[in-house]
Amino acid sequence: MFSLTVPNMAAKITRTIFRDREVDEDRFAIVKYGVEIFLVNVTKGITVYLAAALLGMIWQTLIVHLSYLIVRRHSFGLHAKTSLGCTITSVVVFVVLPYIVKEVQLSGWMIVLISALILLNIAIFSPSDTENIPLFNAQKRHILRRKSINNTIVVIFIMLLISNGVVKSLILLGLLIQVISIHPWTYFLLKRRYNNYAKK
């Protein structure tokens, strides 16, 4: 599988980067890790949008993905433990779920209710850290929470201005996916440690 060759490709690219220079092992390892992250993300993106293209779901996937990313940027949340797991999860949440709900049109009061619940959860539970990236700095957590709330309000406001019911549903789906990724119930069900900053 391609994902199994990523470390080898990353090492090859890193050696090319430092071709004309001597570099210590630590610096080489840091750059190699960055290249691996880049390759994994590119591979994941290609896989997700190829799957979306095969189902004729490019614009639907893009709407869900963008609304999710805008809020996730500052609220963080769970990551899959492996790159393969991340790719499979991404295909499910950004392609399969939009395919299922692509024709769903919610009533006005349902949209308002779901939006309010999303904003409430973002305000309570963001930012949500992981074992690998604990957010020890209380001031930084406060800033990230404020930015997460602001981003969510902006996305919801834009959604309310849109007349297309399908687009509204897809935007809400992207926001709900992010809420699920930061919610303590999700951490509990997946047996992942929550509030890692408190374990310092």
Layout of helices and strands:
Layout lengths: L1 H16 L7 H30 L3 H18 L7 H19 L6 H18 L12 H24 L3 H18 L1 H6 L11
Looking at this protein, list some descriptive labels.
74% helix; transmembrane; AgrB; 200 residues; hydrolase; mainly alpha; 0% strand; globular; 8 helices
Taken from the alpha-carbon principal axes, the silhouette is: globular
Could you estimate the helical fraction of the residues in percent? over 70%
Number of strands: 0
- Could you tell me the radius of gyration in angstroms? 19 Å
Structural class by helix and strand composition:
mainly alpha
Give the distance, in angstroms, between the N- and C-terminal Cα atoms: 38 Å
Mean pLDDT: 85
Enzyme class: hydrolase
EC number: 3.4.-.-
Transmembrane segments: 48-71, 83-101, 107-127, 148-164, 170-190
Protein name: Putative AgrB-like protein
Write a structural description:
This protein is an all-alpha fold and about 200 residues long. The protein has a domain at about 60-80 and about 105-200. It is about 75% helix and about 0% strand. The chain is built from eight helices and no strands. The longest helix is centred in the N-terminal third of the chain and has 30 residues, at about 25-55. It is globular, with a radius of gyration of 19 Å. May be involved in the proteolytic processing of a quorum sensing system signal molecule precursor. It is an enzyme of class 3 (hydrolase). Belongs to the AgrB family. InterPro entries: AgrB. Its main location: membrane.
